[in-house]
Amino acid sequence: QVQLVESGGGSVQAGGSLRLSCAASGFPNSRYCMGWFRQAPGKEREGVASIDRDGSASYADSVKGRFTISKDNAKNTLYMEMNSLKPEDTAMYYCAARLLSRGDCVTGLPFFRAADKAWGQGTQVTVSS
Question: How far is CA 53 from CA 5, 10, 33, 56, 100, in A?
């Protein structure tokens, strides 16, 4: 059974940093496309970043240069380092995983739009101005 458990959210001031973690179990995550999504109140869930089994990553334009996604296959854990946080980054952040070709994974949008992803329960990030 696929399980994804996020942690690391919290409240920070604008300009601050947070590191999110997602512990994965129940599937060979080294073969999966994984990524982070977020959903702010009243808005649709949006893709933030994706990473393939070899570490190639894709980012939404809104977070490029500020967020870094990474994964440790030995620890079955996905990470996202978030720097220079802005109030508009406030959202519930979710980890997701799906089998996907490397090409589609590193492109970003195919993973963001794919159905049948496994999801974590989310971790809240709040950035105050």
Answer: 19, 28, 6, 8, 10
